[in-house]
Structure formats: C-alpha cells, structure tokens
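Deliverable D4.2, example record:
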Amino acid sequence: MLAIYKRELRSYFKGAIGYVFLVVYLAVAAVVFAYSNLFAMSSHMTAFYTFMLLFSAIALPLLTMKSFSEEKKTKTEQLLLTAPISLPAMVFGKFLAAYTVFAAVSVFTSLYFLLLIPYTQLQVGVWLGNIVAQLLVGMVFITIGLFISSVTENQLSSAIGTIAVILGFLGIGLLNNLLPTTFFLRYVLDAISIFSRFQSFTSGYFELSSLIYYLSVSGIFLWLTIRIYDRRRYS
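Output generated by the structure prediction step:
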C-alpha cells in the first residue's frame, strides 16, 4: 500500500493536476475569506466553510478523475491487477494519496482565521468543528470520485460523473428544506443528507452519529471500488 500511496502522490505533482488544484483551492479560499470575514469585519465561519464545501464538490474530482481512469488509458491497469498487492491496499493507497493533498490544503486554508486573533476572540470549538466537518466531507467526496473513476475510462467523464453524484447528495439537503416539517420523508432525507450533518459540526456540535455516517458512506464507496476490481481481476 505504501508503494501505491507514494506513486500516486508523486503523480499529482509530475503533471499539472496537483499544482492546479493547490493554487486554485488556495486562491478561492483566500478570496472567500477576504469577502466573508476581512471586508465584512466578521469572525463568523459558516459562510466561508459552506462555500468551500460547495467548491470542494467541483474541485475534488480534479484529484480523483485520473486515479483509475488513467490506468485504463495508459494500459497499466493489468499491471496493478497482477501486482503482488491486495486490492484493498491498492484502493486505499490511492485514496490516501488524494486525501493527503486535500487534507493538507484544507487545514492550511483554515489557518486563515488565525489572522483574526488580534481583532476578535476566535471561537475555537466552532473553528475545530468546521475543520473536522471539512475533512469528513472531503473524505466522502474523494471516495465517491474513486468509485466513479473505477467505472469510467475517460477522465472528463469521471470528473463530470463525480460532480453529478456529489451534487445529488448535496441536493438531498436542499430538498429536505423544502418539505413540510411534519412530512415523514423529511426525517429520512435529513438522516442521509451530507449537508445537514455538515451543519451540526459547523455549529460547534460534535455528533458521533454524524461521524459514523461519514465513515460509513466512505467505507461503502471504497468497498464498491474494491468489488469492481475484484470482478475485473477474475474476469
């Protein structure tokens, strides 16, 4: 797994994808922070992290679109399938590489709020809750991207498919807000909504059920990706 992880991590910066992702993510975060906090003279974090959540839905497919699709294009998929490494280790190594890049840039952009310390009292609990929420949601988005990449042969198709699935998950939360409060389906949608559970963390509340939800969804998509390659290995 370590060899796959190192190989994937290096591949992001051998080409332009890793640099483009980092530069664009940092630039967008800086602009959002400037407008939502510096110019507004506000220490509230909800607007910043909500916007970055929506932006991550578009940006993270840049990291995952090549994970498996490129292997098919370059005809190196068979080498992976016949290599002396387990399928879970292969998939998890690719996941960790993409997640390392995202986690690093996500935590770094969160440090922007340290600039507010001389002017206001930073709500540490809310700040940490938002960081944890961002990392958990990013984990889900990356596992979705890996799965879509494993079933497509074109990087562009992988990126578009991932964005569509992620927006579908986020759309559940928006649909939930449109339903009457007494409607039973509202409770079901709230339970499976990525966005609804994200909001609880951004308020500074740590919910074990939400943590289990994010880990479970990520685990399901990783398992599905492993199953896809398990079938290919023996087909």
